[in-house]
Amino acid sequence: MKQGLIIRHVPFEGIAGFREPVETAGYALDRIDVTDPDFARIDFNTPDLLILMGGPMAVYERAAHPWIDSEVDRLASRVSLGLPTLGVCLGAQMIAQAMGATVHEGSVREVGFAPVELSVAGAGSPLRHIDGVPVLHWHGDTFPLPAGVELLGSTPGCAQQAFRRGPEVLALQFHAEMGEDPRFEAWLDGADDYVAGAGTSPARLRDEHARHGPATVAAGRAMIAEWLRGL
User: Fold this and answer.
1) Structural domain range at position 56
2) How far is the C-alpha of 162 from the C-alpha of 119, rounded, in Å?
3) Which one from 71, 110, 168, 177 is the annotated catalytic residue?
């Protein structure tokens, strides 16, 4: 059986809705938290599939999170070898940084459910499954597009919503895995000021989650399933 490893940056941001298509594709999944003492010794090049999830920290907050440099360095090695890698939100930013782009604070904060506008390349990619589907956004950082990749999607507030390098490396700034996971409440806990800075509220986010969540997850699962078939 193929082996997949999930890198979890905080306990409440797991693989969520993406677990089903990954396991259906034949991967046995393991997980490690960045706070685990063993994290520093993990060989990123060993798993058949590496999945990097989100987190509230920023790639440039290295002093507060000493594991970031080690993660970026090991990720750069994996990406250079063209090994199958999926990054979501912070995970996508980690991939961009590992490929030579500099992650920085964006001009706007995107929080809430909204569709991604697909590029021509995106419309012909597995992202076609999310075309017109509101997906969850929760970020304030962005990055220039790394060299040698295809831009797959954008939003008015973030030009780099998704990119890929070949069939193996897929980076998603948005959360198409979230919509049915009860851990969404942990995202909202204590986030009043953060979401207010994006022009929304926990009550509005709960309403969007209830209305859009199932369709988001269904589209996200179809997207990941197709991506995995293309590896």
Assistant:
1) 2-229
2) 10
3) 177
3-state secondary structure of 145: coil
State residue 97's pLDDT score. Answer: 98
Q: What are phi and psi of 85, to 5 degrees?
A: -145, 130
Q: Which amino acid is at 188?
A: L
110 is catalytic: no
Of these residues, 71, 89, 139, 209, which one is catalytic?
89
* Catalytic residue list contains 177: yes
Judge whether 104 counts as a catalytic residue. no
Rounded CA separation 134/149 (Å) = 24
Q: Count of domains in the chain? A: 1
Options 139, 175, 209, 212, the catalytic residue: 175
pLDDT given at position 185: 97
**What is the rounded average pLDDT of the residues 108-127?**
98
Residue 204 exposure: Cα atoms within 13 Å on the Cβ side? 13
Q: Who contacts 186 (Cβ-Cβ below 8 Å, separation ≥6)?
A: 11, 12
Neighbour-count burial for 153-192, b at 16+ CB within 10 Å, e otherwise: bbbebbebbbbbbeebbbbbbbbbbbbebeebeebbeebe
pLDDT band at 156 (very low <50, low <70, confident <90, very high): very high
Global pTM reads 0.97
Q: Return mean pLDDT, the chain.
A: 97
Q: What is the CATH number of the domain that holds 203?
A: 3.40.50.880
